[in-house]
Amino acid sequence: AQSVTQLGSHVSVSEGALVLLRCNYSSSVPPYLFWYVQYPNQGLQLLLKYTSAATLVKGINGFEAEFKKSETSFHLTKPSAHMSDAAEYFCAVKHSSASKIIFGSGTRLSIRP
Amino acid sequence: DTAVSQTPKYLVTQMGNDKSIKCEQNLGHDTMYWYKQDSKKFLKIMFSYNNKELIINETVPNRFSPKSPDKAHLNLHINSLELGDSAVYFCASSQDGRATGELFFGEGSRLTVL
To answer: Chain B contacts of A51, Cβ < 8 Å?
Structure first.
């Protein structure tokens, strides 16, 4: 069975600091992995996805994530946080032949001025 | 022009009532979903339809009944509403449910049961 675990339900960083949101996955076969962002009172939108091509994936708004099979991780990073990055971030996993995407419990990112 | 639109955006109702939420997508996608997001932001898939055929039916009370009249529409009807049904319900669509499956979400319908 597939699952994702997001470490830390809340992360707070200063504006301009590095953002690191952690995600570990569990899958018996190579998965597809996603990061989605949810701004207040909105639906989720895709930040980036890994589909077995390059292990370093670049997304929108300066975010990137690296697939590390040996660590079963897919952590999300951004070199310099901006106030507009404050949102809820969800890691998600999908088996290549499955229909459903399983979401992690989410990490709320706060940015301090 | 909204890609995935849900109505209503807010719904406040009494326990025991029946309510429906409608969803439409204009992306030409084959697959549509309903997700439930609880007060702790946890997202759980409920149903999925591919070309009007039900392909995912999670462990959801049978008071919840999805209906897909065509591949651009997926509605959710809830009978005998309970307090625990209070949540935000998200509709989503994807080009192909079995491929890379990027989801496109609506803005959500916040249901409050009193």
So the answer is: 100
**Is residue A97's pLDDT more than 90?**
no
Cα distances (Å, whole numbers) of residue B104 to B12, B56, B78, B95? 26, 17, 23, 9
- When pLDDT is averaged across residues A46-74 and rounded to a whole number, the result is 92
In the chain, the amino acid numbered A55 is T
Contact A43, B4 (CB under 8 A): yes
Measure CB to CB from residue A99 to each of B48, B102, B108 and give the nearest one.
B48
The answer to whether B48 and B97 have CB atoms below 8 angstroms apart is yes
Q: How many CB atoms lie within 10 A of CB B12?
A: 12
Predicted confidence (pLDDT) at residue B101 exceeds the cutoff of 80: no
A73 band by pLDDT with thresholds 50, 70 and 90: very high
Residue B13, class by beta-carbon neighbours within 10 Å (0-12 exposed, 13-18 middle, 19+ buried)? middle
The per-type count for chain B, helices as H runs and strands as E runs, is 0, 11
What does the DSSP 8-state code read for residue B60? -
| Nearest-by-Cβ selection for B105 from A43, A100, A105 | A43
